[in-house]
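Methods — Computational structure assignment.
A single polypeptide chain was analysed. Its primary sequence is given first, followed by the predicted tertiary structure written as structure tokens.
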Amino acid sequence: MPKIVFLPHSTLCPEGAVVEATEGESILDVALRNGIEIEHACEMSCACTTCHCVVREGFDSLEESTELEDDMLDKAWGLEAESRLSCQAKVTDEDLVVEIPKYSINHAREH
């Protein structure tokens, strides 16, 4: 069973986390199931960038992103070559190391 290492994030998982995943499950689903509340303003429909993550290890094991995901990622804060929308990136049989960026863009969120 593959594992995902979530690197420490100041508010979502200050200590970091190592969790088990199931092949075919999205990174976001794994995070939410394990109490890591990554924002997902569009309810996982690939219509925002609030669930942006950076896959530090295992990136090449993921299916390629779609054109729609790439278009959305172009709007993400802190975009990197290994950036993905966690709602779209499906776990395969390889372990992943994932970093949740410090900021996300959510214009609809109330403060």
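Note: The CA atoms of residues 18 and 62 lie 18 Å apart.
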